[in-house]
Amino acid sequence: MFVLTNSSVFGEFTDVSGEFGFGDNGKAAFGDYNNDGFTDLYTGKIWRNEGGKGFVLVADSGVEGGEGIWGDYDNDGNLDLFVFTGAGALYRNTGDGSFKKISFPELPTRNSRGAVWIDINNDSLLDLYVGGYEIWQQAVHPDVAYLNKGNGVFEEVWRTPENYSARGVTAADYDGDGFVDVYVSNYRLQPNFLWKNNQKNGFENIAEKSKSQGIPDEVIGYTGGISYPVCGHTIGSCFGDLDNDGWVDLFVGNFSHPRAGQDRPQFLRNGGAATDFVFEDKSSDAGLAWQESFASPTFGDFNNDGTQDLFFTTVYGVGSGNIRNYPVLYQGRGDWVFEDVTAIQKVSDLPPTYQAAWADIDNDGDLDLCTAGKIFRNDNQLTGKWLKIRLVGDGKRVNKSGIGAIVRIKVGDEIITRHVESGIGEGNQNDLMLHFGFGELNADKVDAEVTWPGNYRQAVGELKLNATHAISVE
Questions:
Q1: CB under 8 Å to 265, separation ≥6 — which residues?
Q2: Rounded mean pLDDT of 200-216?
């Protein structure tokens, strides 16, 4: 048997924030910056993971704050930090537990709410895409892309032709051409962007063609002289293979007022090569109950049954009509059906938050959750078999962080697929370590295929389950 049945009744998350010494509601970015095998956490402050038993606030790290994402831009094996808020800042990991601020061009995005590391041109050097937001009724700021020229030099190579109000930014090679693409969640009822990497240091917006822009309605105007068909107030989105067919799907997290004409959250199935990678809306039967102030989503298989689950935050405590809003956890049941297990899993009644990210903080094989200023340890006693993979590039063909790589593991008729991502939802980041669940699989080992950026494929055989593996590019 592959999928665990009725496993939600056995689940339980434990709030260990007090025990772990953690308490910060800044957007969460997981990454093992000191290479000790335990993932650390950045929330505007650096929290060092002490052997999976607690977090220690690093007061003298050299990082001055702001929202950020991890990536090894100089391929020295140490995760560096890019802060995308304000004027922007790049911090090089010195390898001794501290960070040094590196010269970086001042961002035109002004008040960015999300960014991603991606290798735009597949030269093994991580580049940056930074979303630009707005000043309400005064200005809308551009998105911008920077090319890593090596030796700590970043050069602006592209800006959006029209300025839209970007919130979250996420990325994946959704069409399998070996070049990572970027999805931008735009606010103010604006269509979203799906920027196809044109392999020439730029992007082409194919959101309308791929049916991922939203559900267009009447055309309206907005600050800055732009006009657009009404779609949704998208705050954050995330890529993930939701039906185990080997293609990366998309969840669009829309804030939406009760009145008609605004997009609700969307589950979008990637039709793959057979449809020229057009997305199919699977939302109507997915089972997600509407809330007005949905905000930042993230995928993770918390019960190791092989199917992605969804955690989704809200940013109002009480919405229109005095209706209570609260973050929710939905368990994936397969066939595009999701079940609300928020109360069963003991993550109910959480306050408004943008913070949401998954990582196995104690290395016990199941995913833990950071949200609403808390750490929830996964104490589920009946989870399936698991596998964790850390991808390591060579710094010549592939970036050392493995960002943009995809791993597929075929089990029967299903292909469990995970990709290394640097930005999810609005400004958060799941751990770079890939996590797979296999339910009650009648096997002790599996074979995997890694697709590195550039579409280089590598077969890796007989990976032992219930274990962590490092895979280096060959």
A1: 251, 252, 253, 254, 256, 283, 288, 294, 297, 312
A2: 94
